Description:
Layout: E1 3-6, H1 12-22, E2 27-30, H2 40-43, E3 53-56, E4 59-62, H3 64-74, H4 89-115, H5 124-144, H6 158-170, H7 180-190, H8 193-196
Parallel strand pairs: 1-2
Antiparallel strand pairs: 1-3, 3-4
Helix pairs in contact: 1-3, 1-6, 4-5, 4-6
Glutathione binds at residues 10-11, 37, 49-52, 63-64, 100, 107.
Domain GST C-terminal: 85-215
Domain GST N-terminal: 1-79
Protein name: Glutathione S-transferase GST-4.5
Amino acid sequence: MIRLHHCPQTRSMRTLWLLNELGVGFDVVVHPFDKSLRSADYLALSPAGRVPALEIDGRTLFETGAITEYLCERFPEAGLGRAPGHGERADWLVWVHFAETLSQHAAALTQQHVMLYEDSMRSPIITRLEAARLGKCFAAIEARLDGRGWLLDGGFSAADVSVGQAVYMALHFVDPAPYPALAAWYGRLSARPAFAASLPQPGEARLYAQPFYPPLADRP
Ligand SMILES: N[C@@H](CCC(=O)N[C@@H](CS)C(=O)NCC(=O)O)C(=O)O
């Protein structure tokens, strides 16, 4: 039994998308993105009360990077991992985990624009700074994609899923227009059926009420 604990449009979408790419059977428990993630029952699954948590093989995993590595080793026939000894192993690990460099900024911006609902709680300078830092991450991806269709020369992998999902969150805050290779790569990713199946389903609560949140202007 594989069971994913998920909140739509959060990092748990990364694991949902990967499970869909792997084509394995699994259940999804959709949680509200609220204080219920701090309940004793949920903390028993994920000790800091975060999503994703993945029940698999009689244990529960948390941390997207670890979950991605575990799933790709568990289901090697899908070809989405690069096993130890593979020539692309190091690059695969780097890009799988680079997703979190993006996600920390997307999470900070989500806090500013979505979770802190009173204007007085928000910081215009943090919204500008974090968006600029995401832009630097987009530039790194753009450089990597120069002459490549996917992040690894060997073709589509879980590295594309990991970074692609982080870019999905980041695109709520950064315009991709200055990054044409990233935009084209993201277009290919978002055309995949497994990506579409990881988006919020009809009736599910969404984290983002708007498609795009520009940096906040300074208050007078
Ligand atoms: N490094 C962790 C981060 C997990 C994380 O912080 N997830 C966010 C959603 S994107 C969360 O659960 N936030 C709930 C909270 O902070 O209360 C991972 O990659 O799984």
